[in-house]
Amino acid sequence: MNPTTAFFFDEMTLWHSAGAHALTLPVGGWVQPPAGAGHAESPETKRRFKSLLDVSGLSRQLQLHSAGPASEEDLLRVHGRAYLQRFKALSDAGGGELGPQAPIGPGSFEIARLSAGLAIAAVNQVLSDQAHNAYSLSRPPGHHCLADGAMGFCFLANIAIAIEAAKARSGLGKIAVIDWDVHHGNGTQSIFEARGDVLTISLHQDGCYPPGYSGAQERGVGAGLGANINIPLLPGSGHAAYLHAVARIVVPALERFQPELIIVACGYDANAVDPLARMLLHSDSFRLMTRALRQAAERLCQGRLVLVHEGGYSEAYVPFCGLATVEELSGVRTAVVDPMLEFVQLQQPTAALLAFQKQWVEQLAQQVID
Ligand code: ZN
pTM of the entire structure? Predict the structure, then answer.
């Protein structure tokens, strides 16, 4: 087995454009055109993450790869043909609104195929033992995308496409998807909720996105009953609440399920300064969540762990959270110090609020684990 971490990236994925927006608001009416990055799902967040990997020297200790686009066959295992045709036609016509909060620009169809292709290749690299674990800097993201519809900045279900490609190619059995993006992994859940071979777990801010969604009672349907777990956390949850949920629910669920591969829908928008959510994580939170899953993967599936990039909208802070994550995956610690760590550590919930949050996690753990 190759001991290194593989990192999949392609500059072209940063050329996907959502058109003129201020954060998530289409420009027009009372919404002034912005001078800066514009849409929240900005390429700058990802470019700065990759740049920090480069200037810190960490990139030189990773296997760096690009990949080809997902094939039509790959896409059709998850998405309907009519949806794909509609997506391509709008992309060819210069872009527009493909779904709710899902604006695209010219060429977004091909770029989304490339984003999914990076995730497919990252999974393949690990399953073929060419890397110990892997990270795919996929953009646009995928976890809100439904089989037949785009939403929430997501146009193709990158992780689902990668899972089905791996199953078709290698006969892979059970796979677990842990989604710590601050928004609910509704697309992944909807695609696999009737399946017992894919465990989906989403930690998310209660009621944030899809708007109003909580999901604590949804445990899968039919053959998939028990293979879907939602961990909605109240706004203001921080480092300790997340780590408690990982230790009390995520890791025990993995041990019970015995996956052959663990995939993380790795969004960084639960960090404390994200504009699209209200959680209080910092770089060490992502480092320790990655450690917990890396150790679970070592125990359960020969270390087979793949992280696929999802959300995260703070241009300034996502790079430090991402660097900590890739440091932990690779076992390489750079000289970079997170300049915001101490500030965020001082913003954590009070003891009383934390006790309430942990109590909620315990209550949920008793329902889904004990
Ligand atoms: Zn998100």
Answer: 0.97
Q: How far is the CA of 57 from the centre of ligand 1 (A)?
A: 28
* CATH number assigned to the domain comprising residue 47: 3.40.800.20
265: left (phi over 0), alpha (psi -120 to 50) or beta: beta
If you measure from the C-alpha of residue 229 to the centroid of ligand 1, how many angstroms do you get, rounded to a whole number? 17
Distance 1 CA to ligand 1 centre (A): 33
User: Tens digits of per-residue pLDDT, 106-120?
Assistant: 999 999 999 999 999
Known catalytic membership, residue 183: no
The answer to whether position 19 is within a domain reads no
Residue 153 belongs to some domain of the structure: yes
Within a domain: 23 = no
pLDDT in tens, 164-189: 999 999 889 999 999 999 999 999 99
When divided into structural domains, the chain yields a total of: 1
Q: Which of 144, 183, 184, 244 is catalytic?
A: 144
